[in-house]
Design brief:
homotetramer; alpha/beta; TIM Barrel; eight-stranded parallel sheet; two-stranded antiparallel ribbon; about 35% helix; globular
Amino acid sequence: IVTTPPNARAQTPVKADVEVELKGEYQLVSRAWKKEPTPVRIGDREVAEGKIFIIAGPCAVENRDQIMAAAKAVKDIGAHALRGGAFKPRTSPYTFQGLGEEGLKLLAEARESTGLPVVTEVMDSQDIPLVAKYADALQIGARNMQNFSLLKKLGKAGRPVLLKRGFGNTIDEWMAAAEYVALHGNGDVIFVERGIRTFDRTLRFTLDVGAIAYMKQATHLPVIGDPSHPAGDRKFVIPLALAILAAGADGLIVEVHPDPSKALSDAAQQLTFEQFRELVEKARALGRALGKTV
Amino acid sequence: IVTTPPNARAQTPVKADVEVELKGEYQLVSRAWKKEPTPVRIGDREVAEGKIFIIAGPCAVENRDQIMAAAKAVKDIGAHALRGGAFKPRTSPYTFQGLGEEGLKLLAEARESTGLPVVTEVMDSQDIPLVAKYADALQIGARNMQNFSLLKKLGKAGRPVLLKRGFGNTIDEWMAAAEYVALHGNGDVIFVERGIRTFDRTLRFTLDVGAIAYMKQATHLPVIGDPSHPAGDRKFVIPLALAILAAGADGLIVEVHPDPSKALSDAAQQLTFEQFRELVEKARALGRALGKTV
Amino acid sequence: IVTTPPNARAQTPVKADVEVELKGEYQLVSRAWKKEPTPVRIGDREVAEGKIFIIAGPCAVENRDQIMAAAKAVKDIGAHALRGGAFKPRTSPYTFQGLGEEGLKLLAEARESTGLPVVTEVMDSQDIPLVAKYADALQIGARNMQNFSLLKKLGKAGRPVLLKRGFGNTIDEWMAAAEYVALHGNGDVIFVERGIRTFDRTLRFTLDVGAIAYMKQATHLPVIGDPSHPAGDRKFVIPLALAILAAGADGLIVEVHPDPSKALSDAAQQLTFEQFRELVEKARALGRALGKTV
Amino acid sequence: IVTTPPNARAQTPVKADVEVELKGEYQLVSRAWKKEPTPVRIGDREVAEGKIFIIAGPCAVENRDQIMAAAKAVKDIGAHALRGGAFKPRTSPYTFQGLGEEGLKLLAEARESTGLPVVTEVMDSQDIPLVAKYADALQIGARNMQNFSLLKKLGKAGRPVLLKRGFGNTIDEWMAAAEYVALHGNGDVIFVERGIRTFDRTLRFTLDVGAIAYMKQATHLPVIGDPSHPAGDRKFVIPLALAILAAGADGLIVEVHPDPSKALSDAAQQLTFEQFRELVEKARALGRALGKTV
C-alpha cells in the first residue's frame, strides 16, 4: 500500500495502489478519526481506558533465578504483565548487551510459570520473527522511535507494539511513528511516555505529563507511562508513577528487580519488591479516587 | 550580612561581618540543613506538608466586578487564597500591563469581602513596599527568578514569597534563588513549579513533575505547582493539576476567571468556575487517597 | 506613551495617548519596519554593519591593578571598548557580588587612561543613574532580559543598551524585550547572543549561531556575540568567536583577564592576553575574507 | 570480540574473547587514545584536518535528469563528493520515501559521469550490502544514531560511515555511537553535526558549533557540519556553513537542487546552483584566512 496526501500526489514519482484522502500527517491513530477508545490486548489481558494496567519486571533478563523471582513477585503484588529485556540498547558498546534468545526463552518460561504475558524489546527488524515467537508484545525503545524501517516491518509482526517516545521527539512525531505501524497493517499500538531530554539533568529525564494529558485527547489508542527512566533513582519512582496516572494514563511500565543493587543495568532506578508493593497500593487508591476500575 | 563560602574567602576583596561555614551553594533552604518541613503562613492560613493549599483567581485584576466575582466564587468552591495580577510581566510592550496600584486596592477589597488572603506579583524592587502594603504574599514571576537585586530586597519585605521557577532555570538555581531571599532575612519562601521550556511546544510549557518529586526531598520549604501556564489551554489544566498533587506538591496556584473568553491576558488557559469546582473535587479525592488532610 | 495593537484596543482599560497601528508584537526594532542597518555609538566609537567591533575585558572589576592592566592590554591588542562588571549577577548569594560603585569608578579611571569607552552591567532599575554616570553603554544580563520594569526605565537612561539574550528565551522574546527599551524612548540597542540552555551540557551553554544569522535579517540594529559564556572554558573561546563572526555578527564581547587562574569569577573561561591577541588576529583575517572593514 | 570495562567485568554473564582495559565509555574514537588526526577516504578523495571537504547534492534522488544535473553542477562549482538520498527517513508515512535501489543506480551513474564519489544513507541493517554495492560512503541519519544493531553491522560494511548526530543526543552519546562502529571493525567514521532540538524553533534545528569546537579536540576522526537541516530555509544556509567552518570543521555536507521549489522533500532549504557557488567561494576565502589548504 502506498498512500499519499493530496499535496504530495502531483509530484510523487511512485505509483499508488490505494489512494486515501488525508487531512494531516497521520490519521489512523488520531482521535479525530476514531472517537471511541481502542483497547489493546496483550496476551489474555487488555490495556483499556478507565483501568490501570501495570507492566513490571527487571530492566534486563540476567539469569533464570532473577527473572523467575521477579515474575513471581510482581504477579503476586498485582502486575498484569511481565517486562524484561533480552536485547538491550546500551549507550556504550562495552556494557552488558543482553542475553539475546536465551533471555527470550527465560521470559517464556516465566510466563509459563506465572501466567503473566510478556513484553520485551526488539531492536532490529531482522529479529522481529524471533522476538514475536516468544513475546506477547513488542517494545520499541526510545532510540528507535523513528527507525522507520523497523516501524514498517512491525506492521506485519502479529503482536501489539509498545511504542516508547523518543527523548528528543515531539508529540506529533510520536503520533506519526505509530501511524507507520498502523498503516503497514498493525493497529495495536500502545504509547509509552518515558521522559524527554531537557536542560535540567537533575533527574535522568524530564517526565512529560503534559504529553500524557494531551495524548489522552489526541489518540484513541492506550497511553501508559514509564516512571523508572525519568526518575533514574528509585526514590523518585513512586511520585512519578502516581503523577503519570493522575495525568490520565491507562497504565504503567516499571522496573522491579529482586536485588537492584546487583542489577547489570539501571541499578539505581529499579524498585525492590517492597517498593513495588507500595506503588501498587498507592496506584490503586489513586485510581479508585479518580473513578477507575482497579 | 556578607557571607562567603570557604573557597571564596581568601580572594574576596569585601569584608565579611559574619562568617558562615558552607557546604554548598545554598544551605538555609536545604532539607540537609533542616529535616522538619517548614510551614509558611499566608495571612491567617498555612501552606504545609500533608495538606493541599489552593490559590485561585484570575490572571490579572481587570476591574471591580471581575475580581469580586472571582474572589467570591473561588472562596465558595474551596480556595484558600486569592491570586490576581496588578503588575503584569508581558512579552510584548503593546499588551495589557496591569492596573498597578488600582489593581492592588481591588485585591484588598476582595480580601475584605471574602476573607481570603491575597497573593500578587511584584516586578520591581522599588514596588515592594507598595505591594506589601496590600498583599499577604508576594509572587516572583518566572522571568524574575534570577533578578538578584529584587531577591535581596525581598529579604526585608515582611511578607512570604512565592518563588516561581524560571522556565530556563535548573533546580539548583531555583534553590540558590530562594537562598538569596532567606539569607537576606526572609525564610518564608514557597517554591512554585510552573513548567519549563523544552523542544516540545505542543503545550505552552513542559510541566516538570520530577522537579516537584525532587524538591519535596531537597527542601524543607513548601512546594506547590501551577498547572495553568504549562497547560496553556484550559482543557489540560485539570490533569496537570492532579499530576502536580500526585507528585507530592503541597498545593496549587491556578487561574480562574468569571468569563475566560473575555480575559485581557491568558484567555485560553483560565478555568471557568464550573471547571474549578471539578478540579477542587478531584483534588480532594486524590488528596484523601494519598493520605493528605483535605 | 501607551501604544496598543489593534486586537487589544477594544478591551484594554487604559487610555492611550498615541495610537500606532501594529502588525505584530514588535515593530521599532524590526527590519521589516526599517530596512537600513542602524549603527549604534558607544562613546566615540560605532558598532555598525560591515565592521567588527570588539569589546574585551575581565568578567568582574576586582581591583585597580587588574582593571588597568586589562584595559591597557586589550586596547593595545585591538579592542574598541572595555568591559568589566561592577554589579555581578551570581547564581549563589555566597559568591563575589562585585565592587559596586567602587568598580564603576575604576572603570572610569581605565577609560581616562586608555581612551576606551566602557561597557558595564546594570542589574537594578534604581541603579541606572549611577551606572549611566560612569559607563558609556549599559549591559543587561541574560537573567534580566525579561525584567520588564528595568527595560522600561532603560528607555530614559541616555546610554546605549547591550541586551543579552536570556538563556531560556526565544528570538521573538528577545526582539520584544528590545522593543520595550525602544518604545520607552531609547532606540540604541545592541543584541548580544551568548548561548542558550539545551540538553547538552558539555559546554557551558549552546551558542546559537542560527540566532545570529536570523537576527541579521530580522533587525536593523547591531548584533554581536559573546563566545566566553557558551564556551565556559578558554580553550573553546576562539573557535566560537570565529563562528559568531562567520555567522554574520557585527562584533564580539569577550572576557580577558591579566591572570585568569586568579579571577574571582568565571576563572575557567577568561582569555589570557596572548590568547586574546590570537583571537584578534584571526578575527581580522576572517573579517577581511568576508569583505568586512577591519 | 566482547570487550568489557573493568567495572562491568565482575558481574557480566557473557564470556569475553578479548579483554581490553578501558578508561571510559569509549576509547577508539578518542583523541586521548590517538593524538594524530585520522584522515578518512571517500572513494579516491580524503577528508582530513587542515582541508575543507565539500559534499553536495540534492536531499533525495528524484529522477535521472535531476541527479545528473545536480552532480555535474556541484562538481563544476567545486564539490568533492555527491550526496543524494535513495532511502529517505520521513516523519510521516504519507510522504515520499525515496526511490530505493533505483535511486542507488542513478547515483552510481552520476559518479560514472562526474567522477565524484557518492555518499548516501542506509536506514536498515539488511540494506547495508545493497547500499555498499553502489555507494562510496554510508550515511547514518540523525534518527538512527543510536540504532545499535545497525551500528554494529556497519563494522563489517567495508565503507566509511558518516555518522550524523541525533538531534536529541549528547556529544558523549555521539562518541559512544561511533565507538560501536569502530569496535566492530570499521574505524572510518566521519562525525556530522546537523543541529539539535532546543526550545527555540525559529530555525529548524539549533546548529551546535560548540559541539564542533569540542569534537575537534575530543576525537582524532574528521568532523564536518550540515548547515541545511538546522537552517531549514536556504536564506540561512550560507552563514551557518561559514560558522561551521570557522568553528573548526573539516568540511560540509549541503543540499543543492537544480530547482529547489520543485523538490519532493526539504524544498525550502536546498540551495540553487548560484547560491552553492557563492557558498563555495566564501568557504574558500574563509578557509584561506584560517590557514587551511583549499
